[in-house]
Amino acid sequence: MVYLTRIEHFNAAHKLFNPAWSREKNEEIFGKCANENWHGHNYELYVTIKGEPDPETGFLLDAKKLSKLINSFVLDKLDHLNLNEDVDFMKGVMCSTENLAVAIWNQLTKHLPATVQLHCIKLYETSRIFVEYYG
Ligand code: NI
């Protein structure tokens, strides 16, 4: 089994806010991320796939093709947008990095060729905070 990782980047705005709670409780739990007027993050997205290299190309999947798939089904729907308001696959869920990683997995896994499997979505919210999802 071989693993291949493609790194992509996007910017997006969000806020973490539970409408069932008071403003005070939201601020207590989510801190600055509860700011009503939004804030942004520079996300780094690591997409790792696994499988066996093709005997003719030696590739698991052409890394450019993987990038194209990530762009079409994930980045085009997120980049420079508001995660709470603009992104169909984040509707109705809290816009945490955890939930975003799971949603990216669900977006991508159905569009990969049958010869490879998604192994991990690793999503950095800041250089010191990241989430990993293995399905
Ligand atoms: Ni935030």
Description:
The two termini are about 15 Å apart. About 25% of the residues lie in helices and about 35% in strands. The mean pLDDT is about 95. Strands 3-1-2-4-5 form a five-stranded mixed beta sheet. The chain has helices at about 25-30, 65-80, 95-110; strands at about 1-15, 40-50, 80, 115-125, 130-135. Bound molecules: nickel (II) ion. The site of nickel (II) ion (NI) has 4 residues, from strand 2.
Largest sheet report: 5 strands, mixed
**What value does the Rg take, in angstroms?**
17 Å
User: What separation lies between the terminal Cα atoms?
Assistant: 17 Å
Q: How much of the polypeptide forms β-strand, as a percent range?
A: 25-35%
Treating each run of at least 4 consecutive H or I residues as one helix, how many helices? Answer: 3
Strand order of the largest sheet: 3-1-2-4-5
Poorly predicted parts: none
Layout of strands and helices, then pairs:
Elements: E1 2-14, H1 23-30, E2 39-51, H2 63-78, E3 81-82, H3 97-109, E4 116-126, E5 129-133
Parallel strand pairs: 1-3
Antiparallel strand pairs: 1-2, 2-4, 4-5
This protein binds nickel (II) ion (NI).
